[in-house]
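Dear colleague,

Thank you for sharing your sequence with our group. We've completed the structure prediction you requested, and as agreed, I am returning the results in plain text so they can be pasted directly into your records. Please verify that the sequence below matches your submission; if there's any discrepancy, let me know and we will rerun it promptly.
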Amino acid sequence: MFLLGHSCWSYLLSKLTGRQLQVNLPAWLAFLSGILPDFDIYFRPVLAHHTWTHSILILLPISLLLSIRFGRLGIAFSTGILSHLLTDSLVGTIPILYPFSNTTIGLNLGIPSIADTILETGALLGVLLLAYINKDYLQITRPNKKSLWLIVPLYALITLSVLFAGDNGISLSAFAFSRKALTLITIGHATLAGLLSLGVLQGTRAVISEIRHSKPKKPNNLSPVATTPNS
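Please find the predicted structure tokens below.
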């Protein structure tokens, strides 16, 4: 699955898990959690893509440690991480027991395919609906310092796409619009990146506003003119 689907599904599943556990996982962490397994792209060729970080033997212990360390927030965040394996196994396959076995499992519905397009664009629509319900949309409509953290999933979304394309000799501009399915997914990526950018802008506005208001006011050196009564 592309990064659009991973980030959107992790937002949906981690936020809904947090809601059941009565904790509010920050939006930037909800988006980021589903992208984390693809961080192996940053470490190529030391780490082969779609191997270590796509194994349940690696991600499950990490998720358990996060859940123990951070409690309910850790559980919600871990749900987002594990959603990566779920979504990849739907449209493709994953090396579930790597490095002890190269056996892969998954429905392999295809990427890009009609199923993948529906899953990715449908998840984006789901994010827009859930963000409206839980008020996360305010992070892109009003100045808020917390919104500045959205730069993290935004940076990951852009850099991972560029690096993956570069490593595989893919022209992003040509690939993005080579099929109707890819065109829709590309529009989805651009939409998500645009929304995250709006959030970063609102966070920046909030920080600038706080700096301006924290500056001490210049003292007024003008003293009132003393007047004396006429004799």
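Summary note from our side: Helices lie at 3-21, 27-33, 56-91, 114-133, 151-167, 172-176, 180-214.

Kind regards,
the structure core
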